[in-house]
């Protein structure tokens, strides 16, 4: 059982995150990507910044909490920092488990906790040349 928690400045290797061991029968992989439209505006890119000294320990803590709460064997959390273009992966959560139900539940738990607790901020750049920093409360509400 283990936790991988990383902040990276290079593209996220989702293939490496999705590796499973022989004890696992399920791998749930969530990948968040930069979308081309947000709140009715055309997005051309995003800058991600983090308070790294706080963010990395919190990522590890969320991983450990996910292991304790769910019947899973591996929790991998990776968030990219720096400038990203539309379509690039900004965050990935990979959960390995003997069974799919636990993997799905753990993946949802981990990404929701990451978004709510980890000090990572994004600045969206728009086609009209404007930009703005977004805060978690300004994002559209997640569907259940």
Termini gap: 29 Å
Percent strand: 35-45%
Major β-sheet profile: 5 strands, antiparallel
The helix tally amounts to 3
On the 0 to 100 scale, the average pLDDT is 93
Element-level helix/strand string: EHEEEHEEEHEE
User: Under the CATH scheme, which class?
Assistant: Alpha Beta
**Alpha-beta classification:** alpha+beta
Coarse shape: elongated
Reported CATH architecture:
Alpha-Beta Complex
Brief rundown of the structure:
With 144 residues, the chain is an alpha+beta fold. Helices cover 28% and strands 40% of the residues.
Q: Can you put this structure into words, describing what you see?
A:
The protein has one domain: Alpha-Beta Complex (Aldehyde Oxidoreductase, domain 3), CATH 3.90.1170. It is elongated, with a radius of gyration of 15 Å. It has three helices and nine strands. The longest helix has 18 residues, at 52-69. By secondary structure, it is of the alpha+beta class. Strands 3, 4, 6, 8 and 9 form a five-stranded antiparallel β-sheet that branches.
């Amino acid at each position: 059982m283990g936790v991988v928690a990383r902040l990276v400045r290079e593209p996220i290797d989702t293939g490496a995150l999705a590796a499973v061991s022989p004890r696992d029968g399920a791998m749930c992989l969530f990948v968040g990507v930069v979308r081309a439209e947000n709140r009715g505006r055309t997005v051309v890119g995003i800058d991600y910044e983090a308070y790294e000294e706080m963010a990395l320990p919190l990522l590890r803590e969320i991983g450990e909490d996910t292991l304790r709460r769910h019947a899973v064997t591996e929790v991998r959390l990776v968030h990219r920092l720096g400038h990203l273009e539309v379509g690039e992966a900004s965050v990935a959560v990979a959960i390995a488990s003997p069974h799919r139900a636990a993997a799905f539940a753990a993946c949802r738990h981990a990404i929701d906790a990451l978004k709510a607790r980890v000090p990572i901020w994004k600045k969206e750049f728009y086609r009209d040349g404007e930009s703005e920093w977004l805060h978690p409360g300004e994002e559209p509400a997640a569907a259940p």
